């Protein structure tokens, strides 16, 4: 049963993440999507650099090793809610 819940949460997260990306593309077009992807690339590069600089990788890996798969999937629930709400507000103002 736990495995079913875990896969359901994971697939729901991936669905709403894709829906958020397409909603953003519909609202802001191709140039807006390119700017979003470049800013996400920059933010993730900075996060990786800071994690390496402050030697946080071992703490991050130990935290992941202490979690169960279901526990990690439950952390996706706030991201699902954020994706749902963001998609709704992006599509409200999108041109038809």
From TrEMBL:
Keywords: Membrane, Transmembrane, Transmembrane helix. The chain crosses the membrane at residues 6-25, 32-52, 72-91. This is NADH dehydrogenase subunit 6.
